[in-house]
Structures are given as structure tokens and as C-alpha cells.
Design brief:
Strand content of chain A: over 45%
Order of helices and strands of chain A: EEEEEEEEEEE
Number of helices of chain B: 0
Shape of chain A: globular
Helix content of chain A: under 10%
Structural class of chain A: mainly beta
Distance between the termini of chain A: 40 Å
Helix content of chain B: under 10%
Distance between the termini of chain B: 31 Å
Largest interface: A-B, 23 and 26 residues
Structural class of chain B: mainly beta
Largest sheet of chain B: 7 strands, mixed
Radius of gyration of chain B: 13 Å
Low-confidence stretches of chain A: none
Mean pLDDT of chain A: 93
Oligomer: heterodimer
Low-confidence stretches of chain B: none
Number of strands of chain A: 11
Chain lengths: ~110, ~110
């Protein structure tokens, strides 16, 4: 099945810093989503981005489907950005739809 | 609020017992997914339903079963519970095939 790898696994930054999180996937995908899991366990949708670039405030994402990777950029980090960031790709095989998750990047923003 | 409702939010039960987790998808969504997240682990895909039919199966144990009802809500049944089944169980819904998925708040199951 499709493999999703995220890097780095852990990232510790000071408030105000910028960061780039990467997601590589092993096969063609029909779609890609980025999620933030906050310290309370909630999974929050950040981007639905099969290709191209999107921006939402301090966050932006770029997916290059032909090269099988996606990047999540966080600028001017705040302590509330802490948590785990997951990339998930949609694998569609014979009508079976699987959203396959990477192992996540744990981001810690220190004040 | 994603619009996906999971109940209960927390559940504590003993080994050997059976529990049912419930998921109400967003209005209009036909697809429901179930995931398991053990402590400090990623999200493991369990099963997917589309408009009442099972469409995809992941690493779901034989002790676990699920269904999607005509009103599109879904239930995940976990039986003969073991300590290792303690985890956060998420439900997600999507409008159809190849559309954005939204997650509920999860049910935190603790088996003692």
C-alpha cells in the first residue's frame, strides 16, 4: 500500500520562528490533507490540497503531486501552534477509499 | 466544530467487556471512516463505509465490527476488550469519494 513519510519527526522552536514540515508519499494520490492535532487530541483540518499552493493566515501549503511531496509552512509561530501535524493522502483503489496518515511531526513552540 | 459528532467522549470499561462507539456524520456526508490512535501513535485506518456499504477495510481486528445505518450514522463495536485496545477512536466523514474528510472529537477508550 501507499507509504506516507513526514519529516522532521520532532521540531522545537521559539515563538516567532518559521518552520517547514514535509510530507513524502510513495505513489500517485487522489488528494492530500494536512491536519493539526492539538494537545486536547482534536484533529483540525488545515488544508485540502491535491496540488498547488494555498494560504490561510500564517499557514500555507504546497503540494507537488508529480514529485510526490507536500510542504506545510508555518510563519511567526505562536505557542498555540504546538501539537502534532499530520499529512494524510487519499488512496482510491477499486472504489475503496483510504485516507492514509503519516506518523506526524510533533511541533513544540516555546515562549 | 467539524460537524461530526462522536459519543461518548470518554469511556472506561473492564477487560473482556463490549462497547459501542457512535458517530453521526456531517449533514449530507455519505462516507464514514473509523480510525484508532494509540498513545503517541499515528492514526490507523480501521474501516470505511459509503452510503451504508462497507468499501474499505484496514487493520481491523476480528473482535471489532462496524456498520453504517440507513440514516448514515455509524457504530463501531469492540468486544472482548483487552488492555491494548485502550486508544482514541476517531470517526471522520466526507461527502463522497475523493472529497475532504472531517474528523469528530474522538472517543477516548480506557480498558482497565
Amino acid at each position: 500500500g501507499i507509504q506516507v513519510e513526514q519529516s522532521p519527526p520532532d521540531l522545537i522552536l521559539q515563538e516567532g520562528a518559521n518552520s517547514t514540515l514535509r510530507c513524502n508519499f510513495s505513489d500517485s494520490v487522489n488528494n492530500l490533507q494536512w491536519f493539526h492535532q492539538n494537545p486536547w487530541g482534536q484533529l483540525i483540518n488545515l488544508f485540502y490540497i491535491p496540488s498547488g499552493t494555498k494560504q490561510n493566515g500564517r499557514l500555507s501549503a504546497t503540494t507537488v503531486a508529480t514529485e510526490r511531496y507536500s510542504l506545510l509552512y508555518i510563519s511567526s509561530s505562536q505557542t498555540t501552534d504546538s501539537g502534532v501535524y499530520f499529512c494524510a493522502v487519499l488512496s482510491l483503489i477499486q472504489g475503496a477509499q483510504k485516507l492514509v496518515f503519516g506518523q506526524g511531526t510533533r511541533l513544540t513552540i516555546n515562549p | 466544530d467539524s460537524g461530526v459528532t462522536q459519543t461518548p467522549k470518554h469511556l472506561i470499561t473492564a477487560t473482556g467487556q463490549r462497547v459501542t462507539l457512535r458517530c453521526s456524520p456531517r449533514s449530507g456526508d455519505l462516507s464514514v471512516y473509523w480510525y484508532q490512535q494509540s498513545l503517541d501513535q499515528g492514526l490507523q485506518f480501521l474501516i470505511q463505509y459509503y452510503n451504508g456499504e462497507e468499501r474499505a477495510k484496514g487493520n481491523i481486528l476480528e473482535r471489532f465490527s462496524a456498520q453504517q445505518f440507513p440514516d448514515l450514522h455509524s457504530e463501531l463495536n469492540l468486544s472482548s476488550l483487552e488492555l491494548g485496545d485502550s486508544a482514541l477512536y476517531f470517526c471522520a466523514s466526507a461527502m463522497g469519494v475523493n472529497t475532504e474528510a472531517f474528523f469528530g472529537q474522538g472517543t477516548r477508550l480506557t480498558v482497565v
